[in-house]
Amino acid sequence: MDNSPAPDDNLDRALVRRFLDGERAAGDELVNRYQRSVFNVALRMLGNVQDAEDVMQTTFGNAFEALDSYDPNYRFFSWIYRMTVNESLDTLKRRRNVVSLDGSFDLPATGASQSAAEAEDRVGKALLELKPDDRAVVVLKHFVSFSYEEISDVLDVPVKTVKSRLFTARERLRQSLLVARA
Amino acid sequence: MNMLTQYQIELIHREIDGGNNSDESAEVRALVATEPEAMALLNNLQSLDALFRQVPDREASPRVRQAIHGAMSLHSRASPKVEDAQGTMQMITRWAAQQLTGVSNFMGELMSTKKILLGATTAVAAIAIIGYVFVGYPPSVFDAGTIGSGNGMGGVQKAERYKGKTAETVTLSTPEIQALLQNDKILKLVRSDVFREVMRDDAMFTLMSSEAYRDLMSNEAYRDLQSSEAYHDLMSSQAYRDLMSNEAYRDLMSSQAYRDLKSNEAYRDLMSSEAYRDLQSNAAYRDLMSNEVYRDLQSNEAYRDLMSSQAYRDLMSNAAYRDLMSNEAYRDLMSNEAYRDLMSSEAYRDLMSTAAYRDLMSNAAYRDLMSNDAYRDLMSSDAFRELARDQSLSQAFLNEAMRDQQ
Questions:
Q1: Other CB atoms within 10 A of residue B371 CB
Q2: Helices B22-34 and B36-54, interaxial angle, to 10°?
Q3: How confident is the model at residue B393 (pLDDT cuts 50, 70, 90)?
Q4: Is B163–A50 a contact, with Cβ atoms under 8 angstroms apart?
Q5: DSSP readout, B148-174?
Q6: Residue B309: CB partners within 8 Å, gap ≥ 6?
Q7: Complex ipTM, two decimals?
Q8: How many residue pairs from chains A and B have C-beta atoms closer than 8 A?
Q9: B321-334: per-residue pLDDT in tens?
Q10: Residues in chain A closer than 8 A to B133 (CB atoms)
Q11: Which chain B residue is nearest to residue A124, measuring alpha carbons?
């Protein structure tokens, strides 16, 4: 499910400028615009709520600390999602040094329907079987609904690479989620 | 069956992604009409896409969201509240250190008054300060206006959390805290599963936010205790550090008997009874604690009152209590000189007679904490014990806690 904010570069730039001018509410609005999708990107990358919350906080903390140096020629959403993905990848690396992932997927129950909960469980586990770089592309495509170009921008890789990773990852997901299950 | 070419596969993927122009979409339609494999792939990808769409969106916890908004104050350059916020951060840091010591004190005190253990004191304090700085609680104290009210600092701790990761980004105002946050032992503790369990524990959070606990933190007798020589001696004693690495202590902390005792009504009644408090402030009892004149105690009125109280008798008949009394770690503690000094100190006796202490003893949150599995697991974890054994760290925590009381 994608509830990510529609990219609005002008709005984001204006909010950044107002925040840097001392208007705290503008910062709050930036957080409000992106916190949900940032959290969900991190969650799908990591499969763990606690880690995703850590990433979310770190991402926003880093973003606001570095906002002075933010180049408005770049899109804010690319910037914030890039930090989210990078922080998630760093978390995965740190985690790998401690415990094996073993496809572990740790999400507490919510009020979601059974079918939604089952879908989340299946997709979550399948995502964790992907290579992190491939997973990032799938997450940005399917959970934030980014175009190839936008994913390319966020991950700082060529569009061709985005497509290659996405198609490869989806083939694996297709095998694990659909073919093997049939 | 004809195999699809790479181009055809990509064409179908792009169709799913809405990346094809009208000609390419027409090409896909023609392909799936003639190639069963293309049809199967398209159907599969559509199913996959539908499955992704079923996955519900999640929300981070309100506390985390609040923390992010709260951290805004630190970064709002022209905000008139920035200076205020930074000052508040310093207060928070000190406050956290105090909380830290406070938790440990009272846990230790609970133990000591029950003649169990005065253990884990300074290290337990680490829970609060590290927990606060790294994980982010208790915000409700600030929300309530106790410290830094109205300046949105409820979540400032989170900004410090990631700042604590690298030396160059640490901006906490006191060098001691900076050093603590970059200490390997602390980082090890923070990264441990048991620590995270405690940080997520509602009982701990409730305790920190409780009125009784805040009263206690602001209690003069309590502060006297913290600044007492006896307390410092205890913290720096070899016996204390030995205790932290003592197997019996670990067993005790994780024993059912200990847990049962903590939740025992008789035990709690005794802890908050007038007779028991009188006994604590009695000189003869203190002498007993120093292994000297037990006979004087026998003739002491407060002692006799205690002995004849129902709460005491109930406690004596409690199996968990008896198990505890026969515990080797407990007996070692009883013979510790620093511990006996503490027991005989004026500050300690004052503390025993405070209303705040009684409030704490009857505080449900505190009792929850004491009987909390995660908390006990933390107390007996290797990471925690390693931290507790480090004298310089203990001293650093104490110094930070003392700073706010001067």
A1: 17
A2: 120
A3: low
A4: no
A5: STTTTGGGHHHHHHHHTTSGGG---S-
A6: B270, B273, B275, B276
A7: 0.86
A8: 136
A9: 666 666 666 666 66
A10: none
A11: B55
